[in-house]
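[Meeting: bench + compute handoff]

Bench side (C.D.) handed over the final construct sequence. Compute side (W.E.) agreed to return the predicted structure before the next meeting so the bench team could plan truncations. Sequence as handed over:
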Amino acid sequence: MMSIYQFSAQRLQGGEQSLNDYAGQVLLIVNTASACGFTPQYPGLEDLYQKYHQQGFSVLGFPCNQFGGQESKENSDIAQFCQINYGVSFPMFAKIDVKGSDAHPLFQYLTKHSKGFLTDGIKWNFTKFLINKQGEVIGRYAPTTKPEDICSDIEKALNA
């Protein structure tokens, strides 16, 4: 059976990381951007990470510049921006494509295994995917969904 654990991605600071390193955790995977109207969701994502991390939960951020050119920074600048402006401590990965023929294989998997509204493709920054402890997609949330509105779903996944 396929899961996200078969994929790996570059971290913002460099180096490849296998998503198998997160096996057994509940994850919220988010495509992010530094200059988006939804960028103020970073503190909410950090709050989720802090609230549930000790219970086996992580947020994984994947910057993307495919929507309105809202992530034009280099990886080192993205890391600095997220830390200085929002105190982000959850894992952040290198900038990737999340749609189209060059989409990262992880996001090809995520969109294939979760239905979106009107289209299965990612339509904007801060689309969120909830992953269970087995590495399977169990929820997909629109960019407009605030991180705090996902708490009950995270708690259910942690308790499953």
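W.E. noted at the follow-up: The first strand starts at residue 8 and ends at 10. C.D. will use this when planning the next construct.
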